[in-house]
Amino acid sequence: MDTLVIEGLEVKYASQGTSVHAVNNVSFVLPKNESLGIVGESGCGKSTLGLSIIRAHQEKTSISGKIIFDGKSILDMSPKDFTENIRWKEISMIFQGAMNSLDPVFTIRQQFVEILKKHKFQGDAHQIIEHTILQVGLSESVLDRFPHELSGGMKQRVVIAMALLLRPKIVIADEPTTALDVLVQAQIINVLKELKKQGLSIVLISHDIGIISEIAEKIAIMYAGEIVEFGNLDEIYRNPMHPYTVALLNSTPKLKTESKITVLEGAPPSMINLPEGCKFYDRCPHAMDKCRKNPAKINTKSGYVMCWLYE
Amino acid sequence: MGSDEAMMEEILSITGLKKYFVKKGLFGRKEVVRAVDDVTLSIKKGETLVLAGESGSGKTTIARLILGALEQDAGKIVFDGIKISDKSEHLKKIRMECQMVHQDPYASINPRMTVLDIIKEPLEIHHIGNKLEQNKIVRQALAEVKLEPIEEIVKKHPHMLSGGQRQRVALARAIVTKPKLIIADEPVSMLDVSVRVGVLDLMKELQEKHGISFLYITHDLTTSKYVGHQIAIMYLGKIVEVGPINDVLSKPMHPYTQALLDSVSEPDPDNLHKNKQIRINESTNENTYQGCRFRAKCPYAIDKCKQEPELEKVQENRFSACYIKIN
User: Which of A 266-285 lie inside 8 A of B, CB atoms?
Assistant: First the structure.
């Protein structure tokens, strides 16, 4: 059974009288026990997509489409129902920069207890807290320390442990390794890999295609609010189809292999007045007349690509 | 000194540079942080030296010492054949001929100034040219960093520019005084992946055209391989390995360099089913200034490591501060 199905998701923010079209007609299916990597540049809507899944968007945001988790339509649930049954219990999130939002005046243990209380946890609180902290590779002594006593890597592990506390099936991780040193970053990736082995699905949001390849079986490439290509990791990295995916892969310098690096010229369109047709039109080396119309969704071996080239 | 200058091939050489900071704790307790400890390195003319290391290893402190923004405790900095002291003529020389590009283009340029004024400011400070000439130099600089259309760009304020464009403005500001050396402190880490290569290409182009040397400070080995000629790896205030960049990154000699390389994730679908092996020990007591500083985390540590290893020549052009041969 599929864990997460998204169909025709649209998210619009109201901003100073205009509307910002952050997520536009996004659909995908994430099978059980698989992880998803959402890749894209800043402002492409990848964080908004993550926030929508956990219903953590701001007021005045209009959302339409369907998000189906374990057969339940998340967007149709009442806020109370969602909070009591889904949020943190089934789906939780590691927010971007969350390690800087730990409360400085409480110990780590107190902050864990607070989460359990808010979610009306029944059972042995201390046991579950201690088990979770070990799961992310920290020792129990961390629990009685304050955030300022911990290093960046330790704080990030604490934040990951917080997301795992109520044993969710899916954790959405928004740039969980940015702002960390390379060595620490690699250690956090190993923590995530270990959690995956224990049956957790991770939705990893990142701009770093290297890190994504460590975690995700399925890849979604996002550009200007749309998923332009979706499929298996192997398919997309070895045989990218959408010109944007190709450009993204070719513009990343590699360490171990020599490859030709090409620059992607131009900038993504403004999300306020999105043009009709393919959003990549201005930067695409293969652009043709037809691309002025919205591209068709063309099925590929393991997913789809939104591009007229493959019609 | 004209003929001497032609003889020299180094634009900057640093010998035995030291900077200790004293951290005052509660109850007058003092802790000394050896941010830069006996660092020796040099940059050849027209080349890029990468200074790589994790945060807190002292990379940026070195940059600030070079520019005289911090006072050194000990050591010698020779820039373009002249030993830099705190005499005002020396500081003027280095601050004109050595420019800096900072990490965050959202913070390093003044949001209230137009692009024209931002790029013109160094010319005004160093009294280069009259108003007309200055305006001309600014436009030339903008053409060099490929910000077009120039007449529109000069009137813009930073908030109207993207991150990549801002970093180009910062580069334009850095080249107007015709510097011989540009210190670039993580110049692309805040930029989007697809924009990064464009800015790095621009740096390479400026180097080829004007022979500018770069000190490229970063923690990202992948981009450093793209722009660098030489690399110096820094760990807790010490240089642990120096050499030609392709040699060091393909055959590291210091265990710390090896660990850094292990931790890089390349975009490769095979990663998914492999565990990431980082050859490093988890350690609790960091920051030991006794002996080799990497000792606690080093998987190869032996008894001898309690004595501090010197940075020694291991092969032609290769230097490493380690008693062990890992390759």
Answer: 267
Sequence length of chain B is 327
CB contact set of A225 (below 8 Å; sequence gap of 6+):
A21, A22, A23, A24, A26, A44, A45, A271, A274, A279
Check: CB of residue B190 under 8 Å from CB of residue B103: yes
- Least Cα separation, residue A67 to chain B (angstroms): 27
Percentage of chain B exceeding pLDDT 90: 79
Q: What does the angle CA B40 – CA B41 – CA B47 come to, to the nearest 5 degrees?
A: 175
Nearest Cα of chain B lies from the Cα of A168 at a distance, in angstroms, of: 22
**CA distance to partner chain B, nearest, from residue A118 (Å):** 34
A60 has pLDDT over 60:
yes
* Model pTM score: 0.90
CATH number of B4-250, picked from 2.60.120.260, 3.40.50.300, 3.30.365.10, 3.40.190.10:
3.40.50.300
Mean pLDDT of A300-309: 95
SS3 A129: helix
pLDDT of residue A1: 62
Using a CB–CB cutoff of 8 Å, tell me whether A215 touches chain B: yes
β-bridge mates for residue B36, sequence order: B19
* Chain A residues touching B193 at Cβ < 8 A: 41, 207-209, 248, 251-252
